[in-house]
Amino acid sequence: MSFDKREELRTFGRFCLIGLAVSAAAASVFYLLRYRNVGMLPAQVLSYTVATFVSYSFNRRFTFHTGGRYLGGEIGKFFAVAAAALGLGSALVWLLSDGLGLHGTPVKDWGVKLLAMAFSALVNYVGARLWAFKPEARNKEQEARGANAKRIHN
What we know:
- By secondary structure, this protein is mostly helical.
- Helix content is about 85%, strand content about 0%.
- It has 5 helices and no strands.
């Protein structure tokens, strides 16, 4: 895989734009849950889960251009990356809110949430770009499926 700096910046830009929209959805879910007195960590996990489903759908098509058939390996890798980012982001939420006492007011809650979102976004981009949507891995999986289909039909 050759590295084209401009294309990488465009890819990252698309990822960020989609991420802003996804983050708005996650923040809205987070706010609604907090408004209903759901705890910080459950609100973090639930809002992040909603965001992950939306993020996968949009990023696979518009950022990494892997439209077409959904492949199990790609989905599994994307959600593994998202789970790692969720774990790391949630650890950051715990550290800042419970460990350092930064919770209980809207400003503190939002500050913690925004830091966790930014950190999780960075982890997600690196994981998606280098592993989940890696073109070589997708091509190998498609070739393997094609070989299996030929073997079944012969």
